[in-house]
Amino acid sequence: MWEPQFALAAEGWRIIAPHLRGFDGGADDHPAASVDDYVGDIVDLLDTLHIEDVVVGGLSMGGYVAFALWRLAARYIRGLVLADTKSQADTPEGIEGRKRMLALVRDKGVSAVADEMLPKLIGESTRRDNPAIVEAVRAMILGNSTEAIAGAITAMMTRPDATPLLSTIRVPTLVLVGEEDTLTPPPMSESINKAMSDTELVLISKAGHMSNLEQPEAFNGALARFLSRRV
Question: What is the residue range of 110's domain?
Fold first, then answer.
């Protein structure tokens, strides 16, 4: 999902896009039970690569993982990129929605999840003007196992509230959000921006929840400016 951002490597940045456990064909991985499992995998990867500091970027669930990484291993983080995400834990209604999604993936499979989620993941403008992006995201979802998706749903459903962490984050942070994002709408990103001390907020026009794929030029432009000026 981060392939459009690989273009920033031409500007001298080393880009690492880890596959979270179970995703992208990792059929032998044990499913995640919490966001902390993903953090442990990322820390193991950084240590294996002898990397001591990074700019950590996460979109949607990746933002939840980024917050957990700050909570558990902040020493690695030089900067943060938080895209189309939120700091709050799931509400009781949100937890019930996750449980319904768990039942859906277990009863009807990954394709049912794709059908359910695509209208929420992709903004109205993209669905209307760029159906190829919709099909690309569908293919990404279908490329994952039932177990990986169930693990991710469980991890998101049980994640702690990261809002108390926001005031402790003292590294440069870029907050991006698609103006058509209905899953984590712009006010949620605005609340992150207000609660932190060294942030920049960018609204991506004509984009929904998958803003990096829907409007890669705008997303990459904001990211390149942030990396060159703030980090």
Answer: 3-230
